[in-house]
Design a protein that fits this description.
heterodimer, A: 101 residues, alpha+beta, two-stranded antiparallel ribbon, 3 helices, 20% helix, disordered C terminus, B: 343 residues, 54% helix
Chain lengths: 101, 343
């Protein structure tokens, strides 16, 4: 069934790309699950910022560290448990009960 | 004990590897249904290591995956007809994307596993294929520097593997994109339903305690007239947040999950009004509006964690905005509920 891409809140994501540093390898395009980047003029560009879910795959795989993003789990239960434990938001996916991810 | 999905052994360069079946059998399907409903979910895993699919040789492809059996099953099923190697990382029984987010499906584990199975002695090429969603935990250029192996990010879904190979190791736009179909969302509902059970029981308990209050004192004798309907109403509010919201996700108004949950709560609240039509006093009806809204909105927010497109920054903003509203709604609802009992 045809359906428009789901998109979350506008103007909140922390993604940034330094186009001067970018070497145009295109790795960010390969790893992004939401088509946030596009390559033109031998540089990557952010074209669908609001679709970014801050998974961090692009920043981790950028060989010249041109991308930065404050990555983490976009999960309310994870934020609550992080708040209770006074730590970073974590979903309880590893070896414990969870609904997350 | 030998696992049922292992059909034999294969010898390459004097080393023996277990060979896995590409066919899923009844226990695999039963196991999948069980973990979707939360049974055995923490221990549904396979041993990490290198497995053979078909009759691979030194030039066959190497596919990397997680040791969650549900994931492992999907991958081997989709490798039917392909001779290859399956390198299973120790992700502690967690799927690729989640494990990548936590770092267990990560550069370190991949490098360690490549070395521990001596992959360079088994295959003559330097190509390993990872699921694209593993990229959240694996830095391809670091794997190359530390092991010499080139990471090729494959498709998001295992079902696209054979097309990916056929297209000469190129994942097209469609293969790279994460979707979130009705079927995908439905598969997640049972676990979410069970996950929030303490919220449900807590809310039920509070509302049941209140249900006994009346101008004549406190009594819980009238279960069918008072307590029962109250428990049922709390349950349908929870159902709206946990089941209806994911099902209707693209069609509910608003981008905030809290809003979407509130609207699905209002759908069931309308049903509630029609069923109880004027049997309750106005104050009690209004109190239920606030309580149903609070419960369905709060529990719907939980689905951000299961969804495939919400960011941490976004969910933080949503919670900052809506948790105070939800708490206010619940408080107002409870106060009105008590007033409704006493007038």
């Amino acid at each position: 069934m045809f359906m428009k891409d789901l998109v979350y809140l506008p103007g909140v994501v922390t993604l940034s790309l330094c186009e001067d540093t970018c070497n145009g390898c295109g790795m960010c395009i390969k790893v992004c699950p939401h088509e946030v980047f596009e390559l033109s003029g031998r540089k990557a560009h952010i074209v669908r910022r609001d679709y970014c879910m801050e998974c961090g795959a692009c920043a981790l795989n950028c060989p010249v560290s041109a991308i930065s993003v404050n990555s983490g789990v976009g999960c309310a239960a994870g934020i609550i448990s992080g708040y209770i434990r006074n730590s970073e938001p974590t979903c309880g996916c590893s070896g414990s009960k969870s609904n997350c991810c | 004990m030998k696992s049922k999905y292992i059909t034999g052994n294969i010898k390459v360069n004097d080393l023996v590897f277990p060979q896995v079946s590409t066919e899923l059998k009844t226990p695999d399907f039963l196991g999948a249904v069980m973990v979707r409903w939360g049974f055995n979910r923490d221990r549904y895993l396979v041993s990490p290591g290198l497995y053979a699919v078909g009759s691979p040789g030194t030039d066959s492809d190497v596919f990397v995956t997680a040791n969650y059996k549900l994931t492992f099953d999907q991958v081997r099923r989709n490798l039917s007809g392909i001779d290859g190697w399956l390198l299973v990382l120790d992700t502690r029984g967690v799927n690729v994307w989640c494990a990548a987010g936590k770092g267990t499906f990560g550069t370190e584990e991949l490098v360690k596993r490549i070395k521990s199975v001596s992959l360079e002695k088994i295959v003559t090429h330097k190509r390993i294929i990872l699921p694209q969603l593993g990229a959240t935990g694996v830095a391809a250029y670091r794997v190359k520097a530390e092991t010499g192996f080139n990471v090729h990010y494959g498709p998001v879904r295992a079902s696209d593997i054979s097309k990916f190979i056929h297209d000469r190791y190129r994942a097209d736009r469609d293969m790279r994109k994460v979707k979130f179909s009705l079927t995908d969302r439905m598969k997640l509902i049972p676990n979410d339903f069970l996950y929030g059970k303490f919220y449900l029981l807590g809310a039920m308990l509070v509302m049941y305690m209140l249900s006994g209050i009346s101008a004549r004192g406190i009594s819980y004798r009238d279960f069918s007239g008072q307590g029962g309907p109250v428990l049922l109403t709390v349950f349908i509010a929870y159902f709206a947040g946990i089941v209806l919201t994911p099902l209707l996700l693209p069609f509910l108004p608003g981008r905030y999950f809290s809003m979407k949950g509130f609207f699905s709560g209002m759908l069931v609240f309308l049903g509630f009004l029609i069923i109880t039509s004027s049997k309750l006093n106005m104050v009690t009806d209004i109190s239920w509006f606030f309580i149903v809204g609070a419960v369905s909105s709060f529990t719907a927010m939980n689905f951000t964690g299961s969804s495939t497109y919400t960011s941490l920054s976004g969910v933080r903003k949503e919670m900052k905005l809506f948790v105070p509203v939800q708490i206010s709604f619940a408080t107002i609802g409870i106060i009105l509920q008590v007033i409704g009992k006493l007038i």
